Fold this sequence. Notes:
homodimer; alpha/beta; Rossmann fold; 3 domains; 7-stranded mixed beta sheet
Amino acid sequence: MNGAESLLKTAVAAGVEVCFANPGTTEMPLVAAFDAVPGVRAVLGLFEGVCTGAADGYGRMAGRPALTLLHLGPGFANGIANLHNARRARTPIVNLIGDQATWHLAADAPLTSDIVSLAGPVSGWVRTNRSAEELAADAADAIAAAASGQVATLIVPHDNQAGPAGGVTAPRPAASPPAAGEETIRRVAESLKRDQPAVLFMGGRALGERGLRAAARVAAVSGCALVCETFPARLERGAGLPAISRLPYFPEQGMAALSKFQTIILAGTRAPVAFFGYEGMPGSLISRDQNVEALASPEEDVPATLEALADALGAGADAGEVSPATRPQRPQGALSLENLAAAIAYVQPEGAIIMDEGNTSSMAYFPMSAGAPPHSYLTLTGGAIGQGMPCATGAAIACPDRKVINLQADGSAMYTLQSLWTQAREGLDVTTLICANNSYRILGIELMRSGVKEAGPQARGLIGLAPPRLDWVQMSKGMGVPAVRVETAESLVEELERAIANSGPHLIEIVL
Amino acid sequence: MNGAESLLKTAVAAGVEVCFANPGTTEMPLVAAFDAVPGVRAVLGLFEGVCTGAADGYGRMAGRPALTLLHLGPGFANGIANLHNARRARTPIVNLIGDQATWHLAADAPLTSDIVSLAGPVSGWVRTNRSAEELAADAADAIAAAASGQVATLIVPHDNQAGPAGGVTAPRPAASPPAAGEETIRRVAESLKRDQPAVLFMGGRALGERGLRAAARVAAVSGCALVCETFPARLERGAGLPAISRLPYFPEQGMAALSKFQTIILAGTRAPVAFFGYEGMPGSLISRDQNVEALASPEEDVPATLEALADALGAGADAGEVSPATRPQRPQGALSLENLAAAIAYVQPEGAIIMDEGNTSSMAYFPMSAGAPPHSYLTLTGGAIGQGMPCATGAAIACPDRKVINLQADGSAMYTLQSLWTQAREGLDVTTLICANNSYRILGIELMRSGVKEAGPQARGLIGLAPPRLDWVQMSKGMGVPAVRVETAESLVEELERAIANSGPHLIEIVL
């Protein structure tokens, strides 16, 4: 057994099932080990941003880490942007990065670079393996570190993958996150009785079904509102689940949404800040004369904490409102952002996974789908565009029995369009809806916000994606994913229904 | 005048003409400044790896830096792989990275990350701007740093772009690199007279016409051989220029090529090392009983040093052999690597820029084209694949009157295929030849070299790019570049002739 095999056996023992990979020469012993050690499915991405974004989607849906396998510093670097999003989502991921053989590192061969410096900004845990004997233990440590909601990065020199291994390491016992202490719960309960109006501002682990049901009990008994962070990693929602509103994106709107509350109680997230700092506007979305109560940090057991809070407030076990089952009517006529949203909400099946990187094109979808059948809702957590295509890919691998709908802005889709090829190769049940407005629309808005009344030709050239107009049907077919273009609400609904009735990947270009 | 405008005016004063950009909200004042300050052409790339790779190609051909404009850490990260190649090529590039407003950095908003840590591994110079007043001076310093053959990275907080500027900074005087000292030249001249057989091992600045002609004079008088590094950033070659052979890629072949020499004289490059460390094989390609003489480092004035060496040896002013004008015959029949190479060498016009990221598919091209009309030859310097598509794009912007032919492996092309869109938008005269072997062929070779006799199904899945087969014609048309597929040598030559006769971008998918 070589180091690579001991690493993979250790991963299998810890429950790892998938590796999103784009390897090179320095990863060859690991490539060979996928066949020698059964249990880890190797999924090729034709660009590393596909691999890391897929690992993010997989981890959000599976609740346990996938591996990535990446080629030295430059290969890893191509995956950084989506690891940035994964870090903000607190997704468990284990990156394996091959490096030059230990004895060849000092030669500074062309592909050599400082991988630790690249890995640090997106990794909660980084280690360079020192020997083949230690590879299994390093892998077990990396998987345990990831399991707590981190990106863990293990750099594996080529020779250590090939060298004689020390054995397999048993899984590290998972550290269960603690619930908030009794004193905190008592303090927050007192505040809820006293300092109304109040809002539970929720994120991270609070947004699963258990956390939401507990929060709804708290709301029922205290009268507080429920608001979630602007970009949740994964929110369970739909008919029969507690309703929660979402903090708006622009800071003035976010502040307005929160301004009516005397008290903001943080559950599984930090106090909200502006996505960007605008001159003359504060960076915090909470003013100094509002109370902020920290109930549970992202690292704590937020659902258990919310349940304890509901109990402390004397909430009934089944208290709390849920969203009634409602769907918009079958939309008709010209395409608009409203009937794009209505089409999805009208069609989406129970258990759908909605990946929303629609940016300015998907704003109508969230309210429109509140009463759709229960579904998981994933968003762009870190702002690094190009996340929807691979995240949907990984989610489909984690949940092969669920339908994935990727509501996708065109400019962002271009960042990681190679994801379509992986969807075709693996036969994944992903329907990609390209919102083709041929523009980085958000940048046009931001340019106006920055005080520019009318963009000049160079600025317009940096914001517009046409000419030439991207033809998503041709690009998609070129990667093996059947595709159509729609220009009316009727044809959108028909094509969506067809895609949902037939498994496998589909792409629908929506001309906006 | 705001900070962004002072920065751009300073860049224009220093001779900067192009910025390859994919901006976001934190770069809006710079976006607006492109219209307020004339002189810098903003070129949009639909992915940052396109921008940095294009800046590399531009810098190699123009000999002066382009700007890139990138959005915070994640946007910059998407450009790292091609900056890695640029660093190895010693290409002058100035990266401008927008960051959060200084007062908003501590809020750790979603897109915030440690940009300095990401930038360090690929930048010879990194600075975070501290005020709007200092932006012009920082830009002048960055441009001067880049001009010496470095990647210079300037991080520009959002508020400092918008704040009142301190004025424009005049260009820093360019530091001319020194030639090697007389003692070194005397020592090397003595060695050449004494320790034959010898080879001038050349790279970097040695590979322009002036350096090559001087080296040919040295060879004529001393009998030494001329060999260049495996992956030159830019080599001038063809009929009427001195011939130089290229060090083979695999280390055993590289060692064999050098083993016949008693002395290896380094001119503009370091002593050659293996691209990867293989077990049982040394990392250095030079053995202990060979002499290594350092004539000129990559940082020195290598052409002047070579001329001084030729003079010291008493070489005639016009001495030195040059390649005779020869072309292969017009190839016929089924496609093979040989007649792919022959087709290009048969067709390529004088002054062509040949970007070669053909990897295993282009090995026959270099010897086949030795007698083609004079041309510039660019290669993948740092091993980070995905460089050919954008590098060809940038080269075409630097040299609008020259024909660019990008000899491009399919797996590598998928990394930065978005380059095609920029070629279409800008109407660039680039002909992309996709070598469609549907495989990471090099990895199949490397897997065998690592001792695996027969790849298992998972390894095969990580090496093969089909199924599904990529359809480059559809993908290219989807981005606005006309494309055809060829399956015979005759049709390849015909399509190449057509592409060369008609300006603008073309893509030819070559079924191998």
